Amino acid sequence: MTTKSQLRLQLDLPANYEYGTWVRHAGVESACNRLALWSVHGGNIWLSSDLAAGKTHLLRSFAAEQNTIALLDVQHREESTSWQMVQQWMQTLESHAMWMLDVSAGAMPVAVAHALFHTLERARDLQRPVIIAWRGDIETLPPELSSRLRAMDQLMMHTPARDDELLMILRSGVSTLQWDIREQVLQAMLTYLPRQLDILMPALKELEQLSFEQKHKPGPAWVKQQLIRIAAELQPRLI
User: Fold this and answer.
1) pLDDT score, position 237
2) Tell me: domain 19-157, CATH 3.20.20.70, correct?
3) Measured on CA atoms in the order 220, 225, 230, 232, is the torsion positive or negative?
4) Please, are residues 125 and 99 in contact by the beta-carbon 8 Å criterion?
């Protein structure tokens, strides 16, 4: 009797954001409740966080559930003028009743900031409820945009405070990857890596990819070796 080896397609598949894979913990409870109310009653919200906390996943989950919501991914590029960006963004936003703007974290180029301000102006003129998700220093923004953000209802999302909550999120990531591993692998990640989602989730994906590329079952010694390497590579970034 012959056995067939498992095949894995090497495709760069888009990230899968579903509300069913969203892990609801204490740090995001109030934000989840407020967004649910926003989807019914509207309003203007600035969604932020102390560190990476899953804002993108949450917004995409809500947008996927309701076809009245337009979701715009705003990257920090300066390839176009602010006016050109507004015109491009309106093609996605204008026909929808509610708008979500998911803005890359960190310092915002002036052209992007001005484009966001004019987009918020357009939303006010068209009476569109808006959520803008952005994590960064508001003092670095042009005054017209910073004043708009301060006038919005501000919601803060927080990273999980407990290991069991982090493990729940990692398990959800494993399920999304459809990767069969032992719980000890996830616990080892919390031992060797900083407890930050923007480090843990990419590391999980890297481990999964390496295990398939090297055809290596993720045993304790191999996992420890890879996590120590990843932690060492992170040192310049964490200093």
Assistant:
1) 59
2) no
3) positive
4) no
